[in-house]
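Reposting from the mailing list since nobody answered there.

I have sequence plus structure tokens for a pair of proteins and want to know whether others read the tokens the same way I do. The first protein:
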Amino acid sequence: MTEETPGFEENEKPDVPSGATSDDAEPKTAPSEKEGAAPAGDSASSNQSAQDVALTAQLDQVRTALSERTTDLQRLQAEYQNYRRRVERDRVTVKEIAVANLLSELLPVLDDIGRAREHGELVGGFKSVAESLETVAAKMGLQQFGKEGEPFDPTVHEALMHSYAPDVTETTCVAILQPGYRIGERTIRPARVAVAEPQPGAQTVKSDDASDSKDAEKETGGPDEG
């Protein structure tokens, strides 16, 4: 029999020092990281920044849209106010025109009442009706104008007669042939009058008299001397 040389069997593991674990026997490998990969914190920060930029862009769009809508609303409000004022002005104008047309038709009646009053014929029931009509016309804004002695104004007077008078210094209404009527500032009929102007040469005579008086004062040394 041949002697077998002591040795390791194929499946026999090498001896491990006492107190050592299997993990110590195995080589440790460090966890592998992909080259160029960003850390988790940097990725989260990038996402947050992208969201902030998107929200800021949306906020700018909303602010722009709000500004445009506010401008449109202000323009519409101004147009509405102008429309209301225009409608109110037109309404007042239409009312004044309607009242003026109505009262214009009544002017001949008022003239007849005035002539009857001048001749003393405004008596009895006719007087009461006439005065009621005049009161209603006055409430509707009708005003009578035209008086003797007032200066002639071609914008409110219509001269039907013309003469010269020595006692006037300008063209003057010396007789009211037909009174004028107005509503507010609107004249619906001018006053028909007779006018008188200063006599030709009257101003020249007065000027000569004034110059003669001045010459006399100069010659005598003035009224306080002598």
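The second protein, same order (residues first, tokens after):
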Amino acid sequence: MIRVENLHRHFGGFHAVDGASLKIRAGSITGLIGPNGAGKTTLFNVIAGRLPPTSGKVFMAGEDITGLPPHELFGKGLLRTFQIAHEFGSMTVRENLMMVPAAQSGESLLNAIFNRSRVRDEEARIRDKADEVLEFLTISHLADQKASMISGGQKKLLELGRTMMVDARIVFLDEVGAGVNRTLLNTIGDAIVRLNKERGYTFCVIEHDMDFIARICDPVICMAEGKVLAEGTVDQVKNDERVIEAYLGTGLKNKVKEEAAHG
């Protein structure tokens, strides 16, 4: 699905992404882990067109998408969410979802004046779709709430819901667990797994919660200092000496050894 080749993104003398190469397999839920400053979010921003690369290439299903702007990538089905949710706070949760589909008839002044029935019918279809999404995410009870009034975890669910309003092919999720309680994080995890299994979504997930990563992700990629350090199953990555030293820490290193000794 996604292939990144020798990607660099420099900010002056700082190499945020420093020759990273990786693949995200179609149909997978790939975890991306690493210490703060490893370059994970910058990598997301380059792939998703928010930042141009200094050098290197990004391919999607064999097509070179390097440097394409976000709106073009959106049209190709590549979407991303953010560490801090970006909702329209004065609009309801349902209205936030209804904003997502592009090129709606009602955006045209001529249609609004002369094709009101077309606009009305399309709006009804989009509303039905939004309600279906809310039900899927188990947040139908929030449909008429102002988006500014819902919790941080519910806003993360709303961001995930936005990806369901269009034909998403791959979704990049940036720290879905940040500021989210365990119950809501489990709900988010359930939704991601269902979207993957039932609707064929491919995901790449940045997250520091290793229990969450272990529950939903395979494979897992670890970055450090702008480079890909290791890749494999959760257990393979957790037991990789380089990952332990760079990210998980010597305390976990000893814990891992203890667990291995006790079978």
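Reply #1 (J.P.):
I read it the same way you do. The first helix runs from residue 40 to 47.
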